[in-house]
Each structure stands twice: as structure tokens, then as C-alpha cells.
Amino acid sequence: MPDTTPPRPEHRTQPESRPTTSRRTALRAGMGLTAGALGVAGAAAPASASAPSAPHAGGARVLQAGTPLCDQPGDSAAAQGLGSGDLAIPYYREHDGTWGYVFGDSWTGIQQTGTYIGSPVMLNQDRFDASGATPVSFTWAMPTAGRAGQLFDYRHDQNNGHGFEVSRIPNDCIEFGGRTYIQYTSVATWTPPAGYDGSLMSGVAYSDDHGVTWRDYPYHWAGDTQGVNQSMYGMWSFAGIDPDGWLYIFSKRWNGTHVNTADGGAIQLFRIRPDRFRAGDFGAQENWAFVDGGWRWTRSAPPSVILSGNNIGEFSVKRIGGTYCMSYFDVADYSIRTRTAARPDAVWSAPRPQIVGNNTLPPSHWGKPQVPFLYGGYIHPGSPNANALTLIVSQWNGKLHEPPYWVLQYDGIAA
Fold first, then answer.
1. Which domains does the chain have, with CATH numbers?
2. Where is this region: Disordered (predicted)?
3. pLDDT at 358 (0 to 100)
């Protein structure tokens, strides 16, 4: 490997119908080789994000239906120094009306070759076509156009002052008031014992120069190896700043491994004033909790679980056109599912499978787009409405230096 930073040994174990080879094992095997491995984010989306669907011959609607956004020779990601990467969490860059995409594991070459860049990594786009007529195309990278780099200043497989950590994985990103925020999980191990989530801690990093340089808030939420296994603050999704002035945040246990059977699909909800969040006064949050026989906002009780069921991995919640939309990778159902609600604290609809790993079983998967080895499934905050979501879905085939290791764009998803 040409650089001194080892590939992030992420673990993407799939359900029984898929290979159970650990990415930790695969990537470790690759070390030493030449191939190294709110409405809209607190603000209204630009008018171009709500453009009508583009027609083509016969007037039919043109949509992206699994368009790869990286890991293709000569594509727009490669032009910005990123060959292969996953997640690509989209967010609205409020200060100039552009769009950012935050990747996890990233390499300079396709098929996870070349130099391992790190995690998280960011590519940006000057405009987003919400009609689905044209796919996302990246126009510059952080920190330097044409040269993608790891955003956070830390070392992999080291103790960076908090305990041993393998990597820091982004869960969501938001910008408001001139500051950009990434919530992340620091992973201690991708192969934890049964019943443990394998995290070191979770934190929030911020940037006051729109993503070039980053600092960490001093407060971190302790994880598994710091003595708090299954913390409900492991993974966050920023639903956005509601018209009522509150920043709504959903959170859950860390399950980036997809094998945390203690996850239970549990999700909680809290809110905080944007100025208090900016100040790092996280104790000012209000919690959506079931207290004394009823649901209420309170600071005197912790958040209650609002949803539970199958184990879930990555998840995303965004306010789209006045409707709150949720998407997540359902590990047990082997699908990206969606739900909707009128308000963050309202009753959520039943889950709907949208993109599936196997479209032959169960019957609810019949006719759905099929993506083996899928995960992720982030809602693009520039989606025009809840019946026409753009989802960014990750796919990895379980093998190092083989395609695919990328993100795919799907448009026109009715949540």
C-alpha cells in the first residue's frame, strides 16, 4: 500500500442469503498491496430543486433507477479524486445553494484500489436536478477541488485520545447559520461479540468554512468500549429545522455492522433550539417521551422509543415538502424501507419496501428494484415531494478489489 494509513476495515455482513465474509478480514488481507485500499437542512431548497420532471420521446418521465455515482472509469467522482466510496449522505449547502455528499470509506481508484483516502470524505455539486432527468454529478471536492481527502484530523487504528478506534463513520450532515455539522460514530471494532455494538463513542464535528476544516465538540456520547453498550445516541439523523423553530433529531443504536441483533430497530426523537445546538449545549434538548400515561415533550425524562421491530442499519429522516419522510436499511427484511408522518412526533406510517436485495421473496418485494448487497438508503433533501424521493443507496459485493463498491441514485420513490 503506498500510504501509511490502512484501509478502514469495515464490516458489512449481510443476511444469510448473502456472503458473510467480513470486510474487516477482506480489507486487512489487502494491506501491503499496491491497491490500498430541513425542509432542506434548515432552509428552503432553491427553486431548481423543485423543477418539473423532464419529458423525453413520447412524453414519458425520465428517472434515475440505480445510476452509479462513483466506481466507474472517468466519472465525475473520479475527476474529484474519488474512485470508490459508500454512503454519500446528501445535504443542502445553505450558504450558497449547492449540495454536499458525505462518503464513508473511500479510495482513489475504482474497485477499492489505489490509495485509501479515509472517512469521512466529501464531494460537492453545484446544482441538483430533482426531476430525475440527470444524475448527480460532482463538481468539486473537499478540501481541494480535484483532490478528495479525509475531512477529520485523526488516525485510523489508533488511540486518538479517547481510546482505540478503527474509523469514524458519518451518519448525517446538516448546515444552518453558516456552520456545517457531521454526526459520526467512532468504531472500536467491526467484529464485536454478540450483544455488543462495537462502538467507541459518537460525536458531532463542525466546520465554519463550509467543510474545509473541522473541529470536534468536546462532549461525546460514550459507546460500547467506553462502557455504554447500545447507546441510543449512537447514530443520528437530522430531520431539519421545522417551521416551529426547533431542530428535530432522530437517533438509534449503532448498527453499522448490520449484525447488532440487540439493535431491535429502536428509534428515539429529541429536539433542540438551533442556537443551543451551535453552542454545544446539548443538555438543552427536549425529549419526546411517554410519561404518566401520555406522550409529551419534556426535559425531565429521557426520550422514549417511538419505533421498533427489525434490526436496522443506516437511516435517514428529512422534511420533504411539508411531510416527514424516513428511510432505512431493514437488515431482517433485506430492503430499503420508507415511512412518513405529518410531524416528527406524529404517528408514522407502516414501512414500505422500496429497493430490495431479493425481489422474489417475500411477496412484498415482488417487482421492486433489486440490488444485492445493499445498505444505506439516504433521502436527498432536494427531493421535490414525498411521492418523488431521491434515495442514495450503497452496494458492496463482499470482495476486495472487485466491483461494485459504490452508491446508486434512485428517483421517483413514493414514500
1. 23-413 (2.115.10.20)
2. 1-24
3. 95
